[in-house]
Amino acid sequence: MAAAMASAAERAVLEEEFKWLLQEEVHAVLKQLQDILKEASQRFALPVSGSEGAIKQENFVLSTSGSCVLGMKTTSSHMFVSSFKDINLKMPRNNQLLHFAFREDKQWKLQQIQDARNHVNQAIYLLMNRDVNYQFRTGSEVLKLMDAVMLQLTRARNRLTTPATLTLPEIASGGLTKMFTPALPPDILVNFYINLNKLCLTVYQLHVLQPSTTKNFKPAGGSVLHNPGAMFEFGNQRYEVSHVHKVESVVPWLNDALVFFTVSLQLCQQLKDKISVFSSYWNYRPY
């Protein structure tokens, strides 16, 4: 009702404020978003070959889980881990310690990190994909842009906060199993994933189910973490998980990235709210 009773002078003031919002504040917010997301993107940057200074190696000790001791070395540019080059896995087996490492000729990358990086870069592209002197003419144009940017940021955040559910055959047939030297024995499966700001590694010890014991065979479905007793079939052989070892380590730059995503989403929403205030005035029609 207050908007309907506004005088012509008040309307002129609102129109000037809205014009200033489109011409000045929107661009200031877009610039702020670009700066924040460029920082976020750097957290996912791959090491550049031939860059100044030697590539730093960061070591993450993924704690211990009972008798399972695991550790890892990652390729890092500054503080920005992007891929995994070496991993050492030691666990008792017949009173012996097994040692595995990534093959020298391979570099395995977490798909979650690759996807999150791609979504961040797409958000940056959306923010910068216009002439430097471009002027927004309508609030709906700004809302459409904010929705598109927020969609990419939400997808980036979700890739880090929501690990994929995999079946045990999917883990067994995944590329990770072929990355080790010496090769993993058939009774061990490993899986990496990101959960929020943590790098998680799960090691599954298996035992073969004999034909006489498979009458109650019930294959397990997809899960982030499978429990002992889970059964599956792979390569014409049926297995049961006997032991599960899960270890994790906080990766500081992942926490930075999540903070950047949250701040950016808040800025987008705040700008949308300001646009909506004016839109509610322009769309108001008295009875």
From TrEMBL:
Lineage: Eukaryota, Metazoa, Chordata, Craniata, Vertebrata
Annotated GO CC locations: RAVE complex; synaptic vesicle
Source organism: Nothoprocta perdicaria
Name of the protein: Protein rogdi homolog
Family: Belongs to the rogdi family.
Localization per Swiss-Prot or TrEMBL: Cytoplasmic vesicle, Secretory vesicle, Synaptic vesicle
